[in-house]
Amino acid sequence: FIDITRFKYPQRPIIFLALCYFFISCGYLLRLVLGHKNVACRLENPDDQQSYVQLVHVSGPSNCTFVFVLIYFFGMASSIWWVILTLTWFLAAGFKWSSEAIAHYSLQYHLVAWLVPCIQTITILMLKGIDGDSISGICYVGHTNSSMLRRFVIIPLITCLTIGTIFLLGGLISLMRIRNVMKIQDRTKTSKLEKLMVRIGLYSILYTVPATFVIGIYFYELRYRATWEENPFCDDCPNLLR
Fold first, then answer.
1. Topology (CATH) of 4-230
2. Residue 74 needs a FRET pair 20 to 30 A away by CA distance; which of 82, 115, 145, 177 works?
3. d(CA 242, CA 237)
4. Where in the cell is it found (predicted)?
């Protein structure tokens, strides 16, 4: 339903970013449709409808696994597409690469953007690292294992955000240099470039600020998760600590 050919590099990764967030939204909507207990919990005793316990160390096919794959796989892919977007901006602004030259490596972009999250997801499944969250009803990695949260969520997100920000700043600095040169030659020719810089800067703020908050929230969860589990506020999985 989207004519990708209309979006040339370096803007094209934005389409794949949007696609990733669409599937992430599907993961959260699926949890909403299926219900809290049918995703993050299991019935320990069929004769007791109150004997729900939190799912831990999930690896096989289940609602929990499906929700996890949608949210985690496409979440990591979106972070990598952000890096690719900033990289292509940097190549275009800093090294004067044409759209065709950047597009020449499109296969490599896709290979990295989809293969790395796939390896991460498969590794987590093999390690049985998926857990249900009795508070949110979402299945994800690291709910009961701080080491898994650090290795598979926090470190990859920080890495992608840092690399992307470096490329972004490099591209903006290059554009500012070009703008200064153009101003010396002819002030009337800088309006389009200035608009481009504003658009890139605005988009960067809209991505980096929420991404930074998300990482901060994961650190907060890492610090206080044990306290939350000792004093559960959610009644959907009453036997959380069993």
1. Rhopdopsin 7-helix transmembrane proteins (1.20.1070)
2. 145
3. 10
4. Membrane
